[in-house]
Amino acid sequence: xxxxxxxxxxxxSAAKCRVSARGVLRVAKLGLLFSIACxxxxxxxxxxxxxxxxxxxxxxxxxxxxxxxxxxxxxDIDQQLTDALIERFxxxxxxxxxxxxxxxxxxxxxxxxxYSITPVAVTGDEVASLNRVTLVVNIxxxxxxxxxxxLDRTFTASADYDPTEGPAGETAAATLALEQLASDVxxxxxxxx
Length: 193
Hints:
By secondary structure, the protein is α/β, with parallel strands linked by helices. The protein has helices at residues 2-43, 77-91, 166-191, and strands spanning 60-62, 67-68, 96-97, 106-122, 128-143, 148-161. Strands 1, 2, 3, 4, 5 and 6 form a six-stranded mixed beta sheet that branches. The relative contact order is 0.13.
């Protein structure tokens, strides 16, 4: 009688193992199908895992040096903004950087319209205890293949700094504002398709 229970119990265990193996196999198949679908979807240019959506016909982008029209901007702000935009559009998408605007499938032009520093907190002695750097940048993102502007918009970003930090504090705040602008531009340009 003990042997019978072992044999029956053994059969039940084997049946449970077969059901578990079938369930694992089914989950593995579904996982593989999902992975293939995600790969094909990303390869077609519809979606990437950064959330950026780039049309299939776009393979290259030109991002010329930002134009500075603002008075009093920090040194190299044009290069810093351009580098931040390149980092996002080239490193976070499948787009390749094309130095020649006429050969690129798309181009992104940035123009820094305003750079200002304003006090946002004042001490009892009427001395600024906190300053804000504000940047206003106009962006045009043009699809050269379809000959249409995908984005033509003005973006604003700001960051605060302690005025006792001097020029280094201003530069750090300007860099933070530039990084925020670049992220906002990237999000708007790659989600408006």
